[in-house]
Amino acid sequence: MSSHYANYSRLKFDWPEERILRITMENPGRLNSADAVMHGELVRIWRDIDSDPNVSAVIIRGAGEAFSSGGDLDLVKEMTEDFHTLTRVWKEARDLVYNLVNCSKPIVSAMQGPAVGAGLVAGLLADISIASRSARIIDGHTRLGVAAGDHAAIVWPLLCGLAKSKYYLLLCESVSGEEAERIGLVSLCVDDAQLHDKALEVARKLAAGSPTAIRWTKYALNNWLRMAGPTFDTSLALEFMGFKGPDVQEGLASLREKRRPNFTKDCPL
């Protein structure tokens, strides 16, 4: 494994084929929730990939039967209590989006089971997003008690329109893989057994294509996201202001109750 990836612990790496790097988010026993370590790793990995001449395409997936079950509640609690943690995660959330958008290598996501939180940022901002029929995509911000800022404010309206975005983001409704494909939230929906093979097939085609043409096509298309920069920055500020508000404590207590005694497929939030 390249020295680029030696200092990661929550992200695991393998090369299913030459020039295709596969990232697996792994937080054992917690459905790959994004704790402080994984959150930071999801920020910096895209810069490492961008500078790695051995990578022509990337796949990101979750370990086991989940993609990512959302933010680690201990980290959320710390954000409500410690200003330095709050501002650090705020900056990480901003950098995660911009690093994904600006990464020159094509990214394929393979989502199954719960897809929530920081993992979902990578899942939906990937250039080709593939969901299995079992996938349950949830933007959990309003359930926690904060504004649905982050990536949601810029990418959901572009992908599925304002009406659908408001419905799912305001109500915090779960979106199945099939429904996500129907409304344009993801590129493809496939049977669960086909998910990883399909992701590799797409990555293989991208890796075999013209790197210059693919890079600059991606750059041009992502200008739609860059144009929404002021909207994104404002939405992120509104979201993180909420962590000091009264609704978060109630939302945090509710989510902790749902997650007892441990994580389940039926309760990714």
How would you characterize this protein structure?
The chain is α/β, with parallel strands linked by helices and 269 residues long. The protein has 13 helices and ten strands. It has a six-stranded mixed beta sheet, sandwiched between helices. Helix 1 links the parallel strand 2 and strand 3. Helix 6 crosses helix 7. The longest helix is centred in the middle third of the chain and has 20 residues. The chain is globular, with a radius of gyration of 17 Å. The C terminus is likely disordered. One of its GO terms (molecular function) is catalytic activity. InterPro entries: ClpP/crotonase-like_dom_sf, Enoyl-CoA_hyd/isom_CS, Enoyl-CoA_hydra/iso, Enoyl-CoA_hydra_C. Belongs to the enoyl-CoA hydratase/isomerase family. It comes from Microvirga alba. This is Enoyl-CoA hydratase/isomerase family protein.
Structure at a glance:
The chain is of the alpha/beta class and 269 residues long. The chain has helices at residues 36-50, 73-81, 83-102, 117-125, 141-144, 152-160, 162-171, 177-183, 195-208, 211-221, 223-227, 229-241, 246-259, and strands spanning 11-17, 20-25, 57-62, 68-69, 107-111, 114-116, 128-132, 136-138, 175-176, 188-190. Residues 260-269 have low confidence and may be disordered.
